[in-house]
Amino acid sequence: MPDLSISPEKVCFIIVKVRQFDAKDAITEPDPGSNASDDGMVEVLEDHPDDPVRVELTSVIWGLNEDEQIDLVALAWLGRGDGDLSNWDELRAEAARAHNDRTAAYLLGMPLLSDYLEEGLSQFGESCAGYDSGLL
Questions:
Q1: Assigned domain for 68 exists
Q2: pLDDT score of 46
Q3: What pLDDT does 12 receive?
Q4: What are the start and end residues of every segment in region (Disordered) (predicted)?
Q5: Alpha carbons 134 and 10: distance in angstroms, whole number
Q6: Of 10, 20, 16, 14, nearest in space to 52 by CA
Q7: Which residues pair with 46 in a beta bridge?
Q8: Distance, CA of 54 to CA of 52 (rounded, Å)
Q9: What is the CA radius of gyration of the chain?
Q10: Which of 72, 56, 52 is closest to 113 using CA atoms?
Q11: How many angstroms separate the CA atoms of 47 and 21, rounded?
Q12: How many domains does the chain have?
């Protein structure tokens, strides 16, 4: 079994946050100009550029060291079906070659990211079942 540079807890935290991010809807009222409570707090569910979940996710990913970022990308690719554990070293090497300062933007632009990360993690025999998102 290959070693992961990123802890399963960090991956699970990212999965939880990505699911919160993915739940966002398109902006329906770009400048409501009224009291949020009068509008039913609809803007909380909209995908604004300064969305706190996006900001937190970006900060968490930027806060990872380079090896952790590389493993996160390789885990997503693994979960997407771009390879399996037998060629983990090649997946990871490709992620290392592609690594740049846009890792967060790349990952957040990936549809089904949380599912891919969860599947990749499961191939390492890890699970987010029972994970407490307040651990980080």
A1: yes
A2: 52
A3: 95
A4: 26-45
A5: 11
A6: 20
A7: 25
A8: 5
A9: 17
A10: 72
A11: 8
A12: 1
Q: Is residue 51 pLDDT above 90, yes or no?
A: no
SS (H, E, C) 15-67: HHHHHHHHCCECCCCCCCCCCCCCCCCHHHHECCCCCHHHHHHHHHHHHCCHH
Mean pLDDT for the stretch of residues 109-119: 95
Q: Rounded to 5 degrees, what angle do the CA atoms 111, 50, 106 make?
A: 30
Record the tokens describing residue 124, joined without a space. Answer: 């390492």
Query: Does 86 map to a domain?
Result: yes
**CA distance to 31, 44, 48, 123, per residue, from 40 (Å):** 15, 9, 17, 42
Distance CA(71)–CA(78), nearest Å, equals 10
Find tokens 């070293």 and name the residue. Answer: 89
Give domain status of residue 106, yes or no. Answer: yes
Measured CA to CA, the distance from residue 116 to residue 80 in angstroms comes to: 5
Q: Token pair of 52, please?
A: 């706190």
- Domain carrying residue 56: 8-27+50-123
Whole-structure pTM value: 0.79
Alpha carbon distance 136, 132 (integer Å): 9
